[in-house]
């Protein structure tokens, strides 16, 4: 297998406390040395990373690849190519496919297809309930034995508290987290955006922040009762941050993620009636963003996750009320946050990289990911922190061309991605065996 020497890059590896110009030698899919001034030895290629950031590959613990069944939106190849372009080397795909991933046989089929079609590591989430219908538990034990890394009905809240309790109990037997899409179904009803002044002005039905707060509160109480690990997906409300902070202080086993769109965009954008801004939970207000940022800073929120949720262009190209929720997220995640928070000096680059590498790895106890340690996996990314570019979905590798950051000017971009010691992405191109 190939041997690479990556020289003179600025290595940022928060898990190992590294933040310095260093060289990395990769042999047979493993990081062999991380040190200053390594010799070329038998390297097949010496990569001059002068002026570039070298980071552990990003980990996305929340995305939708749409396979099986909805390949018009995305498939394993287009989804993982898009992930590689965004610097993600491990992603966790959700169960709301067609058929739903609710049986071990479907997990086995997915694993097989992942081996042939994926360019990054894909981990699988199984459903909590059969068909995501919220009525009967899915084959949690069998799916755990088949290799799922979490369970979730993401897209839906599991309204039946008794079922959720049982799911938490089962999941803890297999040492996997339960990921909760926390929005009380009755309170959100058929709302299409955050409930507030803007929804009132536009005459659009609202989804109140309280729907999220109430749903999160139940999950935290059930996690305390069962001792199981609850992970709160795409936290978007101030109240949810406060509840999770208090639960962590009490020792409840809870982790949580936040998305780039909930950190950067507000409900006011919907005055354009552009369905690219339609997502669940909805974009909220500045008051909520301030709380999310505080939650990230103090560790209440462990990770940044994309919730990459591609839809076919024709599906999104309709009236706001009718459009499906969600949009592409892999290829903009790092750049959006770098441009908005690192360039402005509000975050250090180390803080951003921590929340995209060591943070998600620690949240799900994936000890072999999220760091560049000697002897560890060679999953890494090269970033040009000065590269200026404009978001243009037509050049993206995802099939989901709807993106709320379209037309925005970015500073900083992933230029090269390595998975298991192989370069899978470089400057717009994918490489596969
Ligand atoms: O906006 C969303 N879209 N939120 C979700 O939770 C699900 C996702 C999807 O699958 O499209």
TrEMBL record:
Substrate binds at residues 64-66, 96, 280, 311. The keyword Membrane does not apply. It catalyses: (S)-dihydroorotate + H2O = N-carbamoyl-L-aspartate + H(+). One of its GO terms (biological process) is purine nucleobase catabolic process. InterPro entries: Amidohydro_3, DHOase, DHOase/Allantoinase_Hydrolase, DHOase_cat, Dihydroorotase_CS, Metal-dep_hydrolase_composite, Metal_Hydrolase. Catalyzes the reversible cyclization of carbamoyl aspartate to dihydroorotate. This is Dihydroorotase. It comes from Budvicia aquatica. The gene is pyrC.
